[in-house]
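Supplementary notes (optional reading)

For those who missed the lab, this is the record we used. Protein: DUF2183 domain-containing protein. Length: 467 residues.
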Amino acid sequence: MKILISFAYRAWCRWTFLPVTMMVTSGLDRIFAKDSTRWYEKAILVGIFVILNAKVNYRHHGCHTRGGRNSQINYEPKATSQKRLHQNLERMTMQKTTRKWIHRLERRIDRLRHRYKRWYGYSPVVVQPYMTYGTADELWVAGRLLEAKGVQGGLDDSRWKNLVHMLRRYQSDEIPFTDITLALGDEERTVTTDADGYFHYQWKKPEADNVQQPWTQLTLQTVDPELPRAEEQSIAEVSVPADSAEFGVVSDVDDTIMRTGATNFLRHTKTVLLNNAHSRELFPGTAEFYSALQRGASGHANNPFFYVSSSPWNIYDLIAEFIAIHELPKGPVLLKDFGLREDRWFKSGHEGYKKERIEAILNTYPELKLVLIGDSGQHDVYAYLEIVKMYPDRIAAVYIRDLKPASRSEKLNTAADKFADHNVPFTFIEDAAEAASHAASLNLVTEKSEQEVKEDVAEARSQMNAE
């Protein structure tokens, strides 16, 4: 009996936050969402996850001992290194098996849900295209087929409404295994969504007359006539850098252009959950500095921008809207899929993910140098350093917004010093004015643009002091 109580207590202590989170999310979804068929699926998955992980903890953390049938104290001597290694391998095997079966169960449930909705009927669906990039020889088209959520926000929306909209974004109802027609001029291609509703297509050798700089547009629509549509068709935009481009710019989003407080958990959670694209804050001078980089040294270069973030695709619309509201240079928004996989619980980490994204951009445009912009709070320095080591001649400059200058770690300073070993200009910045001055010294922006950025930052500071 005591062992059973200990087993239940361990499961409760270690994993209670998971079912509680799911219960809260599911309850809100049942109240506010049009379709609430998925709440019980999450409850099943979380239940299995809790039971299997509790079993691992029971076997390897002192509950299962030789101290007697009713003993909860481990009287065994300290395990040897070989025994600990064996225990760790056994635990990893159990977790791998757990992950595999949860992944397969999730896929099975998704297929059953899809069949049920095919029979019962979907809510109006929308093809959500993602802004991507390409060349005259190859275009990358991507997006997701979802049930329309109606999560467009406004400046006067309450925090409660923003919270409900954010939960709806994460409660995405995707349409899997469905054909999408891609139209470019007179050319048409067909792509099928995957199990999570995503689609990716590499359009090779498009007709030259259909490819426009700096943006090429395609028309997307579902093939299935039985699917109700929230809109007749969607327009996808693909960035094709102009011949006049001098360099490209890769920018992070959180705490680089958008103030989110990523280094403070409570502040970050509040910003993410309770604000929309209108109420989120842009760092002063950022729009002017980015526009200056887009114009380049010539003043009319039309340099391409790429926004690379570790945020999930669920909030793509929010980030794209934020960029448009604040008149930042339009560019592909490259986010991350947080979905479960058989080989690991989540996709690659922040550093590895950004490295892969930037490397793909460099390989797509072998003649284009990049300016990398990030912040000191989310390992951007380390990701950018790895890129510099691999492509030292392709990086024009690196700018890192220093969120906590007074408490910068020794590890961060050591990594920052290594950029000089590869002759790549690197600097920590506190605001856009510092970045503009440094960029002007490298002939990345004009002196006129530098002055405009400084004036904007000074005006913003005076307004803040007045308040």
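If you only remember one thing from this example: The first strand starts at residue 125 and ends at 130.
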